[in-house]
């Protein structure tokens, strides 16, 4: 029996108007996210990975309605989150919370730690005063902070401790979905491991569902149940974690995985480093065919002529590549 779906995103697109030149020229658009679809099961973690500018963070912001979507739907527990207004939107916002990338700029420096964690409860009008205090006490304990630290200001904490405050704030409304936007990229390596272990423990303890945004496949390898790889606003490959790491199909995914460092000497020798030449195409004027074609080492003429659909090739392993057939073998192998 398939696990219960919490989030279902269909044909999500985000476009930003840009000016090119003066006069009466037609308005142009930057295609930040273009026709993206994915699902997240309750209690699971889906990672969206890709290099800078791939659209992964913009996708997450659109899901949370922190940037406007151009088209598409975001079904959260049977309701389209993008169409909600008024009280319904207010109630739904409590179900979706964000853990931001930078623990230094995401916390209000003028508020004490307890007020920062309590802030979502105050803004959404949830809980009475005594109940809020009890919630804050429980959350500080849950993320590994001491009770007396509630009275401190953000500058009195280390980077890892600040991210713990951000995690506690995200948990305050008992959300159904937590969006983690590069939550450890600004931290030291040793602290990254602590925060990732904390997120996994909290997921088990509170039955949390994560949408995990990252450029680091080494991080998501230990965090996620399934992975979607984005390039130039498109999902080019999506599979469960084991399938994607053991049998990457899209040339872009193969290149990304070849750059993941490993302590295993045999694996290092067996992995051929794949370099991606050139630059991505113009997102304001994307090409007609595959957006990776101009950088792909195995591209054929048809790759530049028509856009490959994202299709299921083997047991839920989806890929957008003309050169991958039903045998589910990568053209890079």
What keyword list fits this structure?
single chain, 333 residues, Rossmann fold, eight-stranded mixed beta sheet, four-stranded antiparallel beta sheet, 11 helices
Number of domains: 1
Summed up, the helix count is 11
Provide the succession of SSEs: EEEHEEHEHHHEHEHEEHHHHEE
How does the major sheet shape up?
8 strands, mixed
Q: Strand pairing plus helix content: what structural class?
A: alpha/beta
Looking at the overall shape, the CATH architecture is 3-Layer(aba) Sandwich
CATH superfamily: P-loop containing nucleotide triphosphate hydrolases
* Mean pLDDT across residues: 90
In the CATH scheme, the class would be Alpha Beta
Estimate the global geometry from the Cα principal axes. Answer: globular
Rg calculated over all Cα atoms: 21 Å
Strand arrangement across the biggest beta sheet: 6-7-8-3-9-10-12-11
Percent range of helical residues: 25-40%
Walk me through the structure:
The protein has 333 residues and is an alpha/beta fold. The protein has one domain: 3-Layer(aba) Sandwich (Rossmann fold). Helices cover 30% and strands 23% of the residues. It has eleven helices and twelve strands. The protein has helices at residues 56-63, 86-93, 113-123, 129-142, 159-171, 189-206, 217-220, 241-246, 251-258, 265-270, 301-305; strands spanning 5-18, 28-41, 45-49, 71-76, 79-80, 96-99, 177-181, 209-214, 226-231, 234-240, 311-314, 317-319. The strands form two sheets. An eight-stranded mixed beta sheet has the order 6-7-8-3-9-10-12-11, with helices on both faces. A four-stranded antiparallel beta sheet has the order 2-1-4-5. A hairpin with a 2-residue loop joins strand 4 (71-76) and strand 5. The model has no long low-confidence stretch (mean pLDDT 90).
């Amino acid at each position: 029996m398939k696990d219960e779906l919490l989030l279902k995103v269909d044909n999500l697109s985000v476009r930003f108007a840009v000016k090119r030149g003066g006069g009466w020229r037609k308005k142009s658009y930057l295609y930040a996210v273009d026709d993206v679809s994915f699902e997240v099961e309750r209690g699971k973690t889906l990672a969206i990975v890709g290099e800078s500018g791939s659209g992964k963070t913009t996708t997450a912001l659109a899901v949370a309605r922190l940037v406007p979507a151009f088209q598409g739907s975001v079904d959260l527990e049977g309701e389209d989150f993008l169409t909600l207004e008024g009280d319904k939107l207010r109630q739904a916002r409590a179900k979706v919370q964000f853990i931001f990338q930078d623990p230094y700029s995401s916390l209000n420096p003028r508020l004490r730690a307890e007020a920062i964690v309590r802030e979502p409860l105050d803004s959404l009008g949830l809980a009475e005063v005594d109940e809020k205090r009890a919630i804050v006490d429980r959350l500080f304990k849950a993320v590994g902070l001491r009770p007396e630290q509630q009275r401190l200001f953000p500058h009195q904490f280390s980077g890892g401790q600040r991210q713990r405050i951000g995690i506690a704030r995200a948990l305050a409304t008992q959300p159904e979905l937590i969006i983690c936007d590069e939550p450890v990229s600004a931290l030291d390596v040793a602290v990254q491991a602590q925060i990732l272990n904390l997120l996994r423990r909290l997921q088990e303890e509170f039955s949390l569902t994560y949408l995990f945004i990252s450029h680091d496949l080494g991080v998501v390898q230990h965090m996620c149940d399934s992975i979607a790889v984005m390039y130039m606003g498109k999902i080019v490959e999506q599979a469960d974690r084991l399938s994607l790491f053991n049998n990457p199909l899209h040339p872009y995914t193969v290149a990304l995985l070849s750059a993941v460092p490993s302590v295993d000497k045999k694996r290092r020798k067996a992995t051929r480093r794949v370099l991606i030449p050139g630059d991505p195409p113009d997102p304001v004027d994307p090409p007609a065919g595959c957006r990776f074609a101009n950088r792909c080492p195995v591209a054929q003429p048809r790759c530049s002529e028509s856009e490959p659909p994202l299709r299921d090739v083997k047991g839920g392993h989806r890929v957008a590549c003309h050169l991958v057939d039903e045998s589910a073998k990568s053209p890079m192998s």
